[in-house]
Amino acid sequence: MDTRTTKALYSRIQEATGGFPPPGYRLDEQLYLNLTAYVLQTNGARPGTQPLTQPRL
Q: Where are the domains of the chain?
């Protein structure tokens, strides 16, 4: 069983993309949340009843 958390995925995305923002593009919390949600969705995770926000990770 895989025990990685949504918070760990969010942190990994921040780490992986934080050093390479496209020119003129600001990486912010909402972008990281959107990327996290996309990765979860494409890997078959079912959506919860609450929006994905930083405090809920």
A: 6-17+26-56
